[in-house]
């Protein structure tokens, strides 16, 4: 690694920006993250972070540390705090896709977990305990983009063989899961232009909002629950 690349790892990473003061602070550098609880880390690999998600109280967040080595991707899911005083590995088994907060103590994520099974899991951030989310409907469609308001879990699917994306809802209180709909995703939208549904609940939990290209262009839609 040359001096320029090393400086980039030292001078970039996760930043905290104060909008009222117009100031910014590097909370965790890429070098710090790459070296954290990793044996024989390869700093010559391409390191980056993404999917930063802050909890409701605003004191902690999760993120994915992703690095590419000889075109092979490795992922880790980490927990941190906004003061720069905490780093904790929640998942480290090569693949982490998308995640969200269920509550202040629990993360919901699609990743490679117990027995190397790729699925949705819940993770207790205090104990680190990982639990398989054993729901047949969510398991049927696999990886998606989950979100939650603490009562319901929403997720979607990538386009299937019929080029349809599926919108899913799970009620954590009743244990009921159902498909809210499926939406056509044309072949003209691919790679960087692919449009994931990225569903979100309204604050009153009466509507689900999502992106779609089902009518030939990207638009924002909603479904009444």
Can you tell me about this structure?
With 225 residues, the chain is mostly beta strands. The protein has 2 domains: 1-134, 6 Propeller (Neuraminidase), CATH 2.120.10; 135-225, no CATH class. Helices cover 9% and strands 50% of the residues. It contains 3 helices and 17 strands. It has helices at residues 3-11, 30-35, 136-141, and strands spanning 13-18, 23-29, 46-54, 60-69, 72-81, 87-94, 96-103, 106-112, 118-124, 130-132, 147-148, 152-156, 164-171, 177-184, 200-201, 207-212, 219-224. A 4-stranded antiparallel β-sheet has the order 3-4-5-6. The protein has a 4-stranded antiparallel β-sheet with strand order 7-8-9-10, with no helix packed on it. A 4-stranded antiparallel β-sheet has the order 11-12-13-14. Strand 7 and strand 8 (106-112) form a beta hairpin. The protein is globular, with a radius of gyration of 19 Å. The mean pLDDT is 93.
How many strand segments? 17
Q: Give the spatial strand order of the biggest sheet.
A: 3-4-5-6
Class of the largest domain in CATH? Answer: Mainly Beta
**Coarse shape:** globular
CATH-derived topology of the largest domain: Neuraminidase
Give the SSE order as H and E letters.
HEEHEEEEEEEEHEEEEEEE
| Secondary structural class | mainly beta
What is the percentage of strand-forming residues? Answer: over 45%
Sum this structure up briefly.
The chain is mostly beta strands and 225 residues long. The chain has helices at 3-11, 30-35, 136-141; strands spanning 13-18, 23-29, 46-54, 60-69, 72-81, 87-94, 96-103, 106-112, 118-124, 130-132, 147-148, 152-156, 164-171, 177-184, 200-201, 207-212, 219-224.
């Amino acid at each position: 690694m040359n001096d320029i690349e090393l400086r980039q790892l030292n001078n970039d990473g996760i930043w905290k920006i104060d909008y009222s003061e117009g100031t910014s602070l590097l909370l965790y550098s890429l070098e710090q993250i790459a070296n954290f609880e990793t044996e024989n880390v390869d700093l010559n690999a391409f390191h980056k972070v993404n999917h930063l998600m802050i909890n409701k109280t605003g004191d902690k967040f999760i993120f994915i540390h992703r690095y590419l080595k000889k075109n092979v991707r490795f992922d880790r899911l980490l927990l941190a705090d906004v003061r720069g005083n905490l780093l904790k590995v929640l998942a480290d088994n090569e693949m982490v896709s998308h995640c969200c907060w269920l509550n202040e103590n629990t993360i919901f994520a699609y990743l490679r977990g117990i027995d190397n099974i790729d699925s949705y899991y819940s993770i207790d951030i205090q104990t680190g305990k990982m639990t398989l989310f054993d729901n047949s409907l969510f398991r049927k469609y696999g990886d998606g983009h989950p979100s939650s308001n603490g009562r319901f879990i929403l997720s979607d699917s990538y386009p299937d063989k019929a080029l349809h994306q599926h919108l899913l809802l799970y009620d954590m209180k009743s244990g009921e899961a159902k498909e809210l709909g499926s939406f056509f995703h044309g072949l003209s939208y691919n790679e960087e232009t692919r449009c994931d549904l990225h569903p979100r609940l309204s604050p009153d939990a009466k509507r689900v909002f999502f992106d779609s290209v089902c009518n030939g262009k990207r638009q924002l839609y909603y479904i009444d629950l």
